[in-house]
Design a protein that fits this description.
The protein is an alpha/beta fold and 584 residues long. It folds into three domains: 2-88, Thrombin, subunit H (Beta Barrel); 99-196 and 389-571, P-loop containing nucleotide triphosphate hydrolases (Rossmann fold), CATH 3.40.50; 204-378, no CATH class. A nine-stranded mixed β-sheet has the order 12-17-11-18-19-10-20-21-22, sandwiched between helices. A hairpin with a 6-residue loop joins strand 21 and strand 22. Helix 6 (218-232) crosses helix 10 (338-351) and helix 10 (338-351) runs antiparallel to helix 11 (358-375). The longest helix has 21 residues, at 419-439.
């Protein structure tokens, strides 16, 4: 078959073959034997009686090492790869492996991958709609749960998706083993399956994402809001005195400005309409000497253009100003609701003197409107957590099924949530999980996979880099692996993903992609990808991918078996729904 080597370059050799060879040699692996050297090559091009074979690595004592230092000589013998060598390449010799798929080039020989190399590193799965991404992901996750004699009981796979397409593929995993369980959360779920987030576990950065912060100065307002909601939620005597102090101080600051009485009255009424207590509100009776007046009536303007009860107002307000008390404004997690948060934000707006600063007031009002809209939307129930929990208890609530069972796969379905808010929700979950993973005493004691379907909806280069100084997904991509937090990005639009996140991915499953922009992006951004890999994926059948990265010894074409059961990701059947046999 192989006659002679005609030329050797840095990365490939040109080999003349017998012109009568009829076998399809493209992408097949060959061995160059030169004394003790055994160089692995792959047929890259076939031109009549000549082959271009690229060098991939070397077998040393039966073990494959990627890359070569010494090239084969012109007199090297060439042969097809044998069974033992193929077994080394596809993971037969690894006792910590699982099946990824089959090799269509080698009669559907099983291709195995090391579990640590696959599941301990960030991965990216790219492919056009209909290329088999969802089927492929479903299959390799199912393969994890069907490993003979091994049970991934402690696995934690969090899936975030805008549809419930994975539900059918994973809801019956306890058929594999009674110890396996699956949970699905959605915004329309019942009390036990509704997507929920405890407000007190959210950081300033989380609220910045939820409220769509656009200015750095708005972060200070959120910080103050959280400190006040923490103080007010106690509902004790000190919190009431603090509220009165803030209202009285705000009224005092407005009362002694050099504005017109009408303008002062309007601002004070505005303060009391948004922030009020039993002692300070527009309807409270203010005692004078021998009479009482309703507080709002004290602001009537006399013929001289002054408040008729200016002295009475000042004396009554001053009773509540307490500048001697050092108020504790440290944020302490405590149970509160969105309504409590609205109250705290209203007090924040008056306590910071924002009424007198047009720019700051405008930025603060934007937050107020967004928080009020959230509190009156269908999304409100997401933040209606039934009881106070700390971070560890929250993670436990997510994964536990009943009292004594745990779920290995948790599916968060973000259907009926708009893209902007869905992105914010996913960021919040990921930040909490990231903080949880970092807090464990033993680093990596509880590895968690964050599997993001339609990842281009979430993992973008957002404005939070400019406002917060970082992006949550980029931080996880750079630091998460050290703590056992791993990303899986699944998308048909890789060009919309954050470049910083893609650069941290170590494993790739590339299904068929045809869009020139996406192909060019993959070529530039994916580490160590070759033009040959790009060309291979162009001709792939649905459900077949090019797999490479740390999990693979060499890039290989992998045919993913059909998942059983299958996800609900196929196209709708137009024929069956539209057509009727009118002759019957």
């Amino acid at each position: 078959m192989f006659k002679e080597i005609t030329a050797i370059s840095k990365n490939y050799a040109m080999v003349r073959i017998d012109g009568t060879v009829s076998d399809d040699l493209l992408n097949m692996n060959v061995i160059f034997e030169d004394g003790t050297k055994k160089i692995l090559g792959e047929v890259e091009e076939v031109d009549k009686d000549q082959l271009k074979i690229s060098f991939l690595g070397e077998f040393i004592n039966g073990k494959f090492l990627g890359g070569i230092i010494r090239k084969p000589s012109l007199t090297s013998k060439i042969r097809m790869i044998n069974q033992e060598e193929l077994g080394e390449l596809v993971g037969d010799n690894d006792d910590k492996s699982m099946v990824l798929g089959l090799s269509p080039l080698y009669n559907n020989y099983p291709i195995k991958i090391n579990i640590d190399e696959m599941w301990s590193n960030h991965s990216a799965i790219f492919g056009n709609t209909g290329s088999g991404k969802t089927y492929g992901v479903s299959r390799y996750v199912q393969n994890l749960f069907t490993i003979p004699d091994k049970i991934p009981f402690n696995s934690n796979i969090f899936i975030f998706n805008n549809t419930d397409e994975y539900d059918n593929a994973f809801k019956s995993i306890n058929n594999y083993n009674i110890n396996f369980n699956y949970k699905m959360y959605s915004i329309n779920g019942d009390d036990n399956s509704c997507i929920r987030l405890p407000l007190w576990l959210l950081s300033v950065d989380d609220y910045a994402n939820l409220l769509d912060v656009t200015e750095y100065s708005q972060l200070a307002i959120i910080e103050k809001m959280l400190s006040l909601v923490s103080a007010f939620a106690k509902k004790d005597e000190e919190s009431k005195r603090y509220q009165n102090h803030l209202i009285a101080s705000a009224i005092t600051s407005v009362l002694y400005t050099n504005q017109t009485p009408g303008r002062i009255r309007d601002q004070i009424f505005q303060i009391l309409e948004s922030c009020h207590t039993e002692e300070l509100n527009l309807d409270v009776e203010v005692p004078g000497v021998g009479y009482t007046r309703q507080f709002r009536k004290c602001f009537e303007i006399d013929s001289k253009g002054e408040f008729a009860e200016r002295v009475l107002i000042a004396e009554y307000i001053q009773k509540f100003v307490d500048n001697n008390t050092i108020w504790n404004e440290d944020y302490v997690p405590i149970y509160f609701t969105l309504s409590d948060l609205e109250v705290a934000l209203n007090f924040t707006l008056i306590s910071e003197g924002l009424l007198l600063n047009e720019k700051s007031y405008s930025e603060a009002m934007a937050l107020k409107v967004r928080l009020h809209t959230l509190n009156n939307s269908s999304y409100k129930k997401i933040f209606d957590y039934p009881r106070f929990v700390n971070m560890n208890e929250f993670i436990t609530d997510i994964i536990m099924v009943g009292q004594n069972k745990r779920a290995q796969i948790i599916n968060f379905v973000l259907e009926d949530i708009d893209d902007r808010f869905a992105k914010a929700i996913v960021k919040v979950y990921c930040r909490i999980v990231f903080k949880f993973s970092k807090s464990l005493k033993e680093r990596g004691a509880m590895p968690i996979h964050l599997m993001l379907e339609e990842a281009h909806r979430y993992v973008q280069r957002d404005n939070d880099v400019n406002i917060l100084g970082y992006n949550m997904f980029e931080r996880i991509a750079k630091e998460g692996r050290k703590f056992g937090l791993v990303l899986d990005l699944i998308t048909q639009r890789p060009t919309e993903l954050s470049e910083a996140v893609i650069s941290q991915c170590s494993n790739f499953l590339i299904f068929k992609i045809t869009h020139p922009t996406d192909l060019e992006y993959i070529r530039k951004m994916v580490p160590n990808i070759s033009a040959d890999v790009i060309e291979k994926q162009k001709a792939l059948q649905s459900g077949t991918c090019v797999a490479f990265g740390r999990m693979m010894k060499i890039p290989m074409i992998v045919k993913m078996e059909l998942p059983n059961p299958e996800p609900r990701s196929s196209n709708a059947s137009i024929y069956n729904k539209w057509m009727i046999d009118w002759k019957k």
